Fold:
Amino acid sequence: MPDPVAGILLTPIFAAAILVVLPGYRLGAALNMIASLASLLFALTLLWDRPPTTQYLLVDDLNIVFVLLNCFVGFTTSSFSASYIGHEIQIGKLSLANIRFYHAMYQIMLFGMNLALLANNIGLMWVAVELATLTTVMMVGLYRTAEALEAAWKYFILGSVGIALALFGTILVYLAARPVVGEGIDAMIWTNLFHAAPEFDSSLLNIAFVFLLLGYGTKVGLAPLHAWLPDAHAEGPTPISAVLSGLLLNVALYALLRFKVLLAANPNAIAPGPLMIGMGLLSLIFAAFMLYRRRDIKRMFAYSSIEHMGIIVFAFGMAGPLGNFAGLLQMTMHSLTKSGIFFCVGHIAQVKGSQKIADMGGLTSSHPVLGWGLVAGMAAIAGLPPFGVFTSEFLVVSSTFAREPILALLLVFGLLVAFGALLLRVTGVAFGPVIGPVGRVHASYIPMFAHFSLVLMAGIWLPPPLVTWFQHVAALLG
Structure:
């Protein structure tokens, strides 16, 4: 049986090498889907076949959650991308050369994200996150319009600042580990660092975590480090919006959680929780109010991503068995829901010929599948029952009320403000008078409804093995 980790990492590399020279759109789209499916199948085998840990690669309960989610959303997005990009070619927005580049970069992006998640070396993890960032930067500017190039440059500049801060934090962790673990690679191996963390210089760890929180927090999209995210969503191809919200933000969050565990293992280091709680609440409340000012539907849901990443970081900051469990569930539900919403929004923008909310209206009448799909996605992301986001947000709020009632009130305030904004915007789009073209949609609805069905099922019933798995991971996170 082939090594699943090798399959996860090598499949996208080989696929990218073929896709960059493969003629024709249909062949490229098909190979992109096949390669993404193969990565998902290899990821599934990690549930029962875990390769031994090396100095560069690691498989444990924590990163399996992220890898499976990454590969699943990567596959469904490649399926959505096939119909979406096909339409862009038909209307002349993209050339075949653009498409070859897009498909190759898509696979390299999946490689970078999976490598970051599987890395047992904190330096390799940093390199992989940077690789994933650079590929998405190039894909954001795919349309080559002035607005797309500006968004790509903003993303590149702010992302570079963030990754530089993360690099400095990583170097400080190495310096804290060197007197205890020794010189060279040994002081960068995560498993070595975790076991020796209680002996590290706490002052160096404290400074390192501040830089790591700011650096990787930029990639997570936390306010006030979020400025790249709305432009990247609005100007890039919609499949990349789905990947950014559903996957790349999670990869940066994963890196942050690894260092949080390291800090928590040192009894003399500062508690990382209050810093994460503060940035999480700030992101939630800021994004909730900013939702009211959005006129572009993709930009609106980009701010919704900032809001939800704030909730997730807040939950992990509260920590404890219930807080970490709620954070894991919220992260999973957000990834599935938000990517499903972007699948829906992408087709809506294509049929209307615009991303402006004012150019849309009455979708439940003119395009019932898209209209009701958007309503379902809005209900799910707003935390309404019986969707899974309601379950995770209920756990976050209830666990916070039991420990810090004042923080819980601020959390609920932010959630209600965001709910009001989403309700205000989506009501007109879905139920108002019909506005804009009413032509036929050439789309695949399977990815969208697959995501929403999973989120609905999670709100009604969570499989006991999944609950046990998340509880174990929550205990590992402290």
